[in-house]
Amino acid sequence: xxxxxxxxxxxxxxxxxxxxxxxxxxxxxxxxxxxxxxxxxxxxxxxxxxxxxxxxxxxxxxxxxxxxxxxxxxxxxxxxxxxxxxxxxxxxxxxxxxxxxxxxxxxxxxxxxxxxxxxxxxxxxxxxxxxxxxxxxxxxxxxxxxxxxxxxxxxxxxxxxxxxxxxxxxxxxxxxxxxxxxxxxxxxxxxxxxxxxxxxxxxxxxxxxxxxxxxxxxxxxxxxxxxxxxxxxxxxxxxxxxxxxxxxxxxxxxxxxxxxxxxxxxxxxxxxxxxxxxxxxxxxxxxxxxxxxxxxxxxxxxxxxxxxxxxxxxxxxxxxxxxxxxxxxxxxxxxxxxxxxxxxxxxxxxxxxxxxx
Length: 357
Description:
Blueprint: E1 5-10, H1 14-25, E2 29-35, H2 40-47, E3 54-55, H3 58-65, E4 69-72, H4 79-88, E5 92-96, H5 103-116, E6 120-123, H6 130-139, E7 147-152, H7 159-167, H8 173-176, H9 178-189, E8 193-201, E9 214-221, E10 226-232, E11 243-249, E12 252-257, H10 270-273, E13 278-283, E14 297-300, H11 307-323, H12 329-351, E15 355-356
Parallel strand pairs: 1-2, 1-4, 2-3, 4-5, 5-6, 7-10
Antiparallel strand pairs: 7-11, 8-9, 8-15, 9-10, 11-12, 12-13, 13-14
């Protein structure tokens, strides 16, 4: 049996806690410490019914535990520094998206992974979701160019509004969440993005003056495909049509129909964000009287993992990448690319200009 991989969990909030649960339950990992600045690490120890070593300071934890791998689920403004420290300490890294809060920072993280000859897995959770994999697969059959319409607006309140306000100290919603859906668009088209334009609005004084809590971006690709993504956070955000995942091509369209996840009151639910439930496929074929030749097809998705199971699958992939020495070069470049596009969208919001890529 392979020796367990010692892992240090840094950040014990929503995602960090879910990843820690995965490590706690998996045979291949051994948690050697939990790191957070507040009380979340103590709460997580109780949740796991464990007694893992607790640390307030990341550098101290890294030195004392000497882990084989590090899971980074902190706020994005710490990602670059924490990941590079981990690589310099000889550890593999799983890091939540986005890879960093700047494109240059993301490139430095990738370079550090290469220098250390260690694995870097970025938390693009939808890449491990069988329903989203199917969505992309069917979307590619609709012909080109594609029209990709996606949003995830969150009427956040209570704890989640605190989380979002903390996130907006470093990134906007269209960067933090947008990298997921930009990544999906890039997989759908496999085309070169040419330019972006975006708009945004600051709807509350509770966030930094140079940020905004509502944004919408548009991307043009060199095959003629176009995509938009919309994201808003806060107690004022509408829950009307807040969950749209739709791809249109010359041959028809495919849509994620999430009856439960798309219900009012679920917009800020982490559990609901990855639910798909079923795909509706519409075919554009018509006869001489312009009547449809095919009925719409419903693909019921039986393998519908919940949020925790998705995190389990992500960490199973991380384990496999380490044990089987997988080549992660393309996935690292994809993570930098999606962030580059998202950051360009942020620039477009702030300048009012189209940004060429």
